[in-house]
Write a structure and sequence with these properties.
Elements: E1 2-4, E2 7-9, E3 16-20, E4 27-32, H1 36-53, H2 58-74, H3 76-86, H4 91-111, E5 118-120, E6 127-135, E7 138-142, H5 150-162, E8 165-169, H6 175-187, E9 195-197, H7 203-212, E10 216-222, H8 225-236, E11 241-245, E12 250-254, H9 260-271, E13 282-288, H10 292-303, H11 324-339, E14 343-346, E15 350-351, E16 361-362, E17 365-368, H12 375-378, E18 385-391, H13 397-402, E19 409-413, H14 417-426, E20 431-434, E21 453-454, H15 459-464, E22 467-475
Parallel strand pairs: 7-8, 7-10, 8-9, 10-11, 12-13, 12-19, 13-18, 17-18, 19-20
Antiparallel strand pairs: 1-2, 3-4, 5-6, 6-22, 11-21, 14-17, 15-16
Helix pairs in contact: 1-7, 2-4, 2-5, 2-6, 3-4, 3-6, 4-5, 9-10
Length: 477
């Protein structure tokens, strides 16, 4: 069902679409298929609700978010089970994501009370300047399938804390997770129209309403760079505020003074997280020739222990890709690399044995001998393939790493503090993990440079994306 103006309802045409488990291809539910008129009604509801919600106190908004956090933690296991069924990731990863998603609600419950203005000195004795922060208005939020819970709360938390109302369009692959989160807000008594949910198989039609309705003052989007560019161009026609977290092509640098075993462990944890379907997943792994053999040996041992299957199986450590299209893209990149001289250390094939044949599984893969002319070197993979580039002292490793239009995340492994600081300053990416494969938190700013996006989510910067600054100039008698 859709959620509009505080009510669960079918779409205008009373049409539905099915949701499938990517590990088994089984149908697991159906949801209402929203169309243009449903989106217009959702914007109507959000616009009407904004007049009152924007005038609530920060403490009132904080209480709703805090209550939602508590209820989300209470329902943690149920939501995790649903996520593993709908999105495919292993249960352990799903539980971690629910906690991570809940953290954004708690963080912004506090940040709601820290939206400060300023008193600014004037050059004139009879003048005073005061600036205040006010909510931008109705927000159109568009979220992805790869993190179907945390990407919702990372947008809803700050938007609601700021005093904005929201129309949410989740990915068509994972609408059930979105419904579970919106139900939490409904159950804590969030006022009608403050949050609205539009599930749809026609994202362009719904997105067009959000982009062209003048009452929607901001768009927040997480997804591909190609789609993000189209949204930004359309939003520009109304000078509509937009923030975007887009694709990545993360380099992972193993310097010659790194501990190769530690670095290989790090790669194995972050590269195959969510089956490689993460925007911060390393996609170019640069390893100094002096530590390459040990690094590859350790990585191969760890990767070959990964078990593919349904995320609902507690023994499974890597899940499916989201659909057959993604399988084909990954397989094409691997085949292209092999044809151009890459060596398959392990994996390199579609998995079809036993029950795996019903799902979208690709073997956890390691490739060595990667060169610049290969597709996998130039394009984001979004799959479980680790491409290794071996370099030497004559190579400018930072120039190689920066040679991309993306700029989201990068990783560096080194035992040398000076080398770590130099890398941190030299790499042109928004997030740098130094001997750390998890440089994210609700309290930390998340976002990229260049074609990886605009703005930041999380941290104190996260709420600023949903606020306008208003200046008052007062002349005294």
């Amino acid at each position: 069902m859709l959620y509009i103006d505080g009510e669960w309802r079918a779409g205008k045409r009373n049409e539905f679409f099915t949701v499938t488990n990517p590990a088994t291809s089984d149908e697991i539910g159906e949801v209402a298929n929203a169309e243009k008129i449903d989106a217009e009604k959702a914007v109507d509801a959000a616009s009407k609700a904004f007049t009152t919600w924007s005038k609530t106190t920060a403490y009132e908004r904080s209480k709703y978010l805090s209550d939602a956090y508590n209820l989300m933690i209470e329902r943690k296991e149920d939501i995790a089970q649903l996520m593993s069924e709908e999105q495919g990731k292993p249960l352990k990863a799903s539980r971690n994501e629910v906690q991570y998603g809940a953290d954004f609600l708690l963080w912004f419950a506090e940040e709601a009370k820290r939206v400060y203005g300023e008193v600014i000195p004037s050059a004139r004795k009879n003048q005073r300047f005061i600036s205040i922060k006010q909510p931008v208005g109705v927000v159109g939020a568009i979220t992805p399938w790869n993190y179907p819970v945390s990407m919702l709360t990372r947008k809803l938390g700050p938007a609601l804390a700021a005093g904005c109302t929201v129309v949410l369009k989740p990915a068509e692959q994972t609408p059930l997770c979105a419904k579970a989160i919106i139900k939490i807000f409904h159950d804590v008594g969030l006022p009608k129209g403050v949050v609205n949910l539009l599930s749809t198989e026609n994202p362009e039609e719904i997105g067009n309403v959000l982009l062209t309705d003048y009452r929607v003052k901001k768009i927040t989007f997480t997804g591909s760079t190609a789609v993000g560019k189209k949204l930004a161009a359309k939003a520009a026609e109304q000078v509509k505020s937009i923030s975007m977290e887009l694709g990545g092509h993360a380099p992972f640098l193993v310097l010659k003074d790194a501990n190769p075993e530690h670095a290989a462990k790090g790669v194995s944890l972050i590269k195959y997280l969510n089956t490689g379907q993460a925007c911060i997943s390393p996609n170019r792994i640069y390893v100094h020739e002096s530590v390459a053999d040990e690094f590859i040996s350790v990585l191969k041992t760890r990767v070959e222990k990964l078990k593919a299957g349904s995320g609902l199986d507690e023994t499974v450590t890597i899940g499916p890709l989201v659909n057959r299209k993604e399988i084909e893209k990954v397989d094409n990149q691997v085949k292209d690399a092999k044809e151009k001289g890459a060596k398959v250390i392990t994996g390199g094939k579609v998995l079809t044995e036993g029950n795996l044949k019903k799902g979208n599984f690709y073997a956890p893969t390691i490739l060595s001998g990667i060169t610049e002319e290969m597709k996998i070197y130039q394009e984001e993979t979004f799959g479980p393939v680790a491409p290794i580039v071996i370099y030497n002292d004559q190579d400018d490793i930072f120039a190689m790493a920066n040679d991309t239009n993306y700029g989201l995340a990068a990783y560096v492994y080194t035992e040398n503090l000076s080398a770590a600081m130099h890398a941190f300053e030299a790499l042109n990416f928004g997030i740098i993990g130094i001997n750390d494969i998890n440089p994210t938190s609700a309290a930390a700013p998340f976002g990229g440079m260049n074609e990886s996006g605009l703005g930041r989510e999380g941290a104190r910067e996260g709420i600023e994306e949903y606020l306008e600054t208003k200046l008052g100039g007062f002349q005294l008698n």
